[in-house]
Write a structure and sequence with these properties.
Layout lengths: L7 E5 L4 H12 L3 E6 L2 H13 L3 E6 L5 H15 L4 E4 L14 H29 L3 E6 L12 H20 L5 E6 L7 H11 L10 H12 L3 H6 L12
Parallel strand pairs: 1-2, 1-4, 2-3, 4-5, 5-6
Helix pairs in contact: 1-7, 3-4, 4-5
Amino acid sequence: MGLLDDKVVLVNGGSQGVGAAVARAAVREGAVVAVSGRRAEPGEALVAELAAAGGKAMFVRADLADAEQAMGSVARTVEAYGRIDCLVNSAGLTSRGTLLDTTPELFDAHIAINLKAPFFAMRAAVADMVRRAAPGTVVNVITSSAHGGQPFLAPYVAAKAGLTGLTRNAAHAHRWDRIRINGLNIGWTATEGEDATQRAFHGAGDDWRSRQPHACRWAGWANRTRSPTSWSCCSPTAPGWSPAP
């Protein structure tokens, strides 16, 4: 028996990186999965991989910077599977910018992906759960950078601090609806997107991953084992579940 047997899980930003690892873990735990993203090729490739492993999955093409498409990812999932039990907001933008060189366009891009997208996806998912009077979960990927962060992450920090506050607010607002809304801080992670960022903004060479062993171990571990997101998505009645102390 898996932690997520027959649960419907939507992973926004699920076609690569952390989101893809979450989707794989959810399928291993028995979930029916929808993954969303802007680019069809990696999303459809992941869905094919999950299907080949015996999972049930679908890809939803969506530009999550558009609030309507963020809500639409939930609507498409509900249309296909009849409901949503767990929403995972893992899409993220990490383009660099300091307080002095961040443009309004870069700031708006960070707010759109890192804050507005999860806000409106949560709105749609929680509305479905409340409508059905059914328990559910939301997992927002947050960061310790929300409490300060490196100088070159100013717009990222601003957006993620907003998401951290939103997560607490929504969790408080919907606790009596039996909807758990969790913030998951997994730490810095070596992903395809981070590889591109390291090369573009920091001049990293081919060996940069070997200089970050902890991040590389996390990325591999998330693809192989029972992930924290699986525990966060599961019902409070699932075997082995216990509340945090």
